[in-house]
Fold these 2 entries.
Entry 1:
Amino acid sequence: MRALIDLIVQNKHWFVFLLLEVTSLVFLFSYNGYQRSVYFTTANDVVGSTYNVISGITSYLHLQEANYELEATNEELRKEVYEMRQQLEAIQQDSMKRLPALPLKYDVVPAQIVNMTLHKSSNFITINKGEADGIRPEMGVICSRGVVGIVYMTSRHYSIVMPLLNVNSKISCRLRGSDYFGSLVWQRGYADIAYVTSVPRHAPVKEKTIVETNGYSDIFPPGLPIGVVQRVGDSPDGMSYFLRVKLFTNFSTLREVSVITNYHSPERRMLEEMAQDPARQDSVLNSQEKQKELEDKKRKDAEEKEEKEQLELERIKQQLEREHSSSIAVPLNENKVSTDTVR
């Protein structure tokens, strides 16, 4: 304390000078508007620059901590992406296990459901694909779990699908692992229950048997899952089984479907229609006979042409042999004449 007092006493003139300077500056900036504005402007610039420098230093000092936080966030995001990828692969594998591979003659057109009814007797589904996408009536519609229904009507960009949940729907099906088949129908009631009719009484039917498409129509390929048998009962006439089936397709949460096409179906359908129409049968038989006659005529013409070519080749061959023989005979005759002359 003594040293501090001595320092002040020794440098009292400097402290007096500083005090007077501060007092003068206070009076200057307090009673003069221009100097006061210059002071505040300069002070703000200095303070702002100072704060900017301090902020930069603080940010730099906390940069490592921010990096740690970003790395932790990235690690959490990577884990979420990995889990979502695993779930997606599991869903894809589950879909592949449920649905057999479609034959090469089939193609799949994905579509989304834009409207659907579930609690009417004649339910319908509207999808956002139509004739512009190659969709036509009587094409099968499936999802990742099984059969959905059949295309009923089409427009340029939309299609109406008759699902399994329609009293007019009738899908030909069979019991997996056997050749016994029947028809899948729906009765008003539950949105996940349908029934299989016309299964013969001697068929070995058990609960939990898979019901699948049998491929008898050109709409669905064989082996597409439809549902599982819940209960085995008798038909009203007692001549066949009446099976209660729980459908695999969950129509209440259904959003994505696929329309399958069969490139051979027009040819098959035309042939079957001809077989049921006697007039078309006669026309087909006549056209087949004409086609056969035309093929026979072409074959005969080809045989005659080949025979003529063979004769011409034989003639040319004989002519070449004669010319060759005559060319050999001339030198022999000349040699004989020269020998006789020498004698």
Entry 2:
Amino acid sequence: MKKVVIFGGGTGLSTLLSGLKLFPVDVTAVIAVSDNGSSTGVLKQELNIPAVGDVGKVLLAMSNAEDDFVRLLGYRFRKEGSLYNHPVRNILLAALIDQKGSLLEATKYMCRLLNVRGTVLPLTEEKVELVGEGQATEYYGEEEVSRNVCRIRKLSYDHDIKIEKEITTKIAEADLIIFSSGSLYTSILPHLIVPEVQKAIDAAKAPLMYISNLVTQPGETDITTVSGHVEILNRYLDKRHIDIVVSNRGSINPDVRQRYLDAEGKRIVELDEDTLHRIGVETIIADDIFCINSEGKIRHNALKTAYLIFSYLMDHSEDQAS
């Protein structure tokens, strides 16, 4: 069975994993834990624990438990009070950190509880904050970083961190390393600013794949081309560079485009295939790897995107065999 390591966080990673779990692939998801917003930020501050929000989302995405149980863990309290806006999964993970002694052990327990096939690894056990270094000031915490990307020259953490040892082993054994779609500066790059991760990726034999974002993220990734996103990743990848990009070429309804622009200032990320080829990137392109969900949001089609990844792995196996 082919081994895949995926870096990311948030909705982009969760969506991808919900599709990839349906294929015979050995998946390891590595998740950044520097979030400081919403329920995660409150628990992080009050309980002095790592950010649990993205870990929880990934666990539910990879779950093979009963739907009712998964919906329960995804339930977010809406009545005013101390539990307002907290999802059940975050409360449970915080309790398990107390009981089991670490986020890693809490995550392993949740994997068993949810019948997760694969491995879920928080990047670190430590409570960490993302720091953006500007010309004259520092932007402290993920939310501040996200709002001030255009002013940031360098990303770092508020202290040197130790990563889970299993992460470097998984990278070395991988047949494919994937950077999921999502917030580049707050979900993907937080992995690449860790020296141990950089060194492990430098030494890895696996090709590097990027699942291209479908829309821009104002303030964080305003770049409107796929190659622009790749160039940011390459800047932080040290000796390696992105080998393959999975991207959408299908047209998105003009009304949906305009609604995104008017409501959120978001634009569709345009595929510039010639530029990608010029910088040495292989492209896997499909006309229909997106969908419009019940809330009118543009999202990757989890099954179709996962199928493209699995097909690449199988084609690559045949190449190696020959």
